[in-house]
Amino acid sequence: MPVVDIDTDELRRLTGHEEKDDDQLKEDLFGLGLEFEGETEDGDLQFEFAPDRLDRLSVEGVARSLRYHYGDDRGVTVPDTNDADWTIEVDPSVPSERPYVAGAVARGVDLDEDALDSLIQLQEKLHATMGRKRAKGAIGIHDLAMLKGERIEQREIGEDNELEPPEDLTPVGGDEGQTDLGNPTITYRGIEPEGDEFVPLDADRGMTPAEVLTDHPTGEEYADLVSEYERYPAIYDELGLFSFPPVINGQRTEVTTDSRELLIELTGTDQWTIDRMLAIICYALDARGATLEDVDVVYEDGAAGEHAGDHLVRPELDTREKTVSHEQIETTLGIELEMEEVVDLFERSGLDATTNLGDETTYEVEIPPYRTDVLHPMDLVDDVGRAYGFGDLEPKYPDIGTIGGRHERSRLERATRTALVGLGFEDLLNFHLSSPEENYERMNVEEGSDALGGGEAVNVTSAYSEDYTQLRTWALPSIMHVLENNTHRRYPQELAEVGFVAERDDEENTGVAEHRTVAAAIARTDATYEDIKGRLQALVGEFDADLETPATEHPSFIDGRAAEVVIDGDSVGVIGEIHPKVLVERDLEVPVAAFEFRLDALSD
């Protein structure tokens, strides 16, 4: 669990509550979920908290939570940012293993010893948590006065970029041609291990990146992050190399209590992660009275990663929305609340809520960019509960007594498996994780298509194996994989699975749509559409449902030998004979007939 060191004098000053003694602060912070762990040698108090609230990794973030708790602040606040004066250019030479960058400028920063210590603590705590020990995201903070940006006169702004060029840019050669950026520019690029020298922090001589990894204590600690790269990541200004991410910064741009203008740069393996880390830092600097300024991030054509050719403006401080019902809040917390009271509790949590009246009362909740923890409506319920005060909830016995039993969905799954086994199928339990090759390519299905299984997959950002990089969008590829591995076994082989699948869906609060699916296949020398349809009819008949199979097309099945699965009037799946292209891909020498449909179609 993360532990943050808090100078209580700083906390009182930032909250504006000088009257609070340490014991009162401990009690108030306990109500927010921060538990007192002890004191440091310097007299700071140490608090442990849930690892999802990374915005509380500094005294500024803890003070912000307390101000909401005390009612001094309400609702969502987003810091203002001035237009960009600096540009970060991402060169095609950047290592593909670490292609992404983000940045911001902070001006008018008053860095006394306490503020500097807090900033350094926030940087290191973010490294250890969200940055995965700098592997996923690393932060560099520099004294802007010590940087000299190169003036790059022309930059190509492609028409497919995420953002339009800023209004203050002067186009050269048309709106979609070359553009005179005119901003001082630093460059994120890749260099040879024995490339340019720089003087790293806590060193007394110039070193190449390779020497840093072997001769510098910090370099030795983080050498494993980049040692296997052919080229190392580096950041240059006009004077030369000043940062070797994710390992160490250069001494030239070291931040001290005399620094008044800062450049914050982040590099990493995932743009979303470094953008969220940057947002947390920007909020902390804003709490110190800094003026924030955008940075233009220009990915050159040919740059690694998904943003090649894009022009981004950072920091990204956009809010987002999620929906939660009034009934879910009351049922979970076990209390009755007025709608106005719920809105008030959301605002005291640092959120904004709009009430929607319909068949059920729901709240559209606006979430600030530093809240990386809000993934599900239950996270919003937790915020309401904490603002209300979990200690104020009165325990009570349930109105009715019950005994444990199977969930209705579990009963349906069990009944379906039993019916499939009774029809001669062997029940399978496959992995839920798959890969693009298995899920799409080897099934002749294109990701993002309307075909069953063609939905956009949920990817694992730090996958342990290349074979398991995403949640499967349908179960039939898993069954085909089993058949492929069983070519040495006797035929016929009749396999079935009732399992979990998921795909991306922006209409869902979590961004992911999940459901259970039923898939089955027959592999034998004379397997036909009629054989598999007979089994499907028998299965659907077990649940007193109506089945229709109008003709359809699906890239995994033979044209003219495929049909929709329509149960009680709803199109829920597909059935047919597997296409020879799919069979050849898997070295299968016998015909395969199969079906797949949604399990919940049998529940009506």
TrEMBL record:
What is the phylogenetic placement of the source species in the record? Archaea, Methanobacteriati, Methanobacteriota, Stenosarchaea group, Halobacteria
Assigned EC number: 6.1.1.20
Q: Where in the cell is it found?
A: Cytoplasm
Please state the protein's primary subcellular location. cytoplasm
Q: Which Pfam families match?
A: B5, tRNA_synthFbeta
Q: What cofactor does its activity depend on?
A: Mg(2+)
Report the GO terms under cellular component. Answer: cytoplasm
**What reaction gets catalysed by this protein?**
tRNA(Phe) + L-phenylalanine + ATP = L-phenylalanyl-tRNA(Phe) + AMP + diphosphate + H(+)
The alphabetical list of record keywords is: Aminoacyl-tRNA synthetase, ATP-binding, Cytoplasm, Ligase, Magnesium, Metal-binding, Nucleotide-binding, Protein biosynthesis
Superkingdom, natural source:
Archaea
For Mg(2+), which residues are the binding ones? 373, 379, 382-383
**Gene Ontology BP terms:** phenylalanyl-tRNA aminoacylation
Per the record, which residues fall in region Disordered?
155-192
One GO molecular-function annotation for this sequence? phenylalanine-tRNA ligase activity
Quote the subunit structure annotation. Answer: Tetramer of two alpha and two beta subunits.
Question: Mind telling me what this protein is named?
Answer: Phenylalanine--tRNA ligase beta subunit
Asked whether the keyword Aminoacyl-tRNA synthetase is assigned, the reply is yes
What organism, scientifically named, is this protein from? Halolamina salina
CDD domains, per database record: PheRS_beta_core
**Similarity comment:** Belongs to the phenylalanyl-tRNA synthetase beta subunit family. Type 2 subfamily.
Domain annotation B5: ranges:
317-395
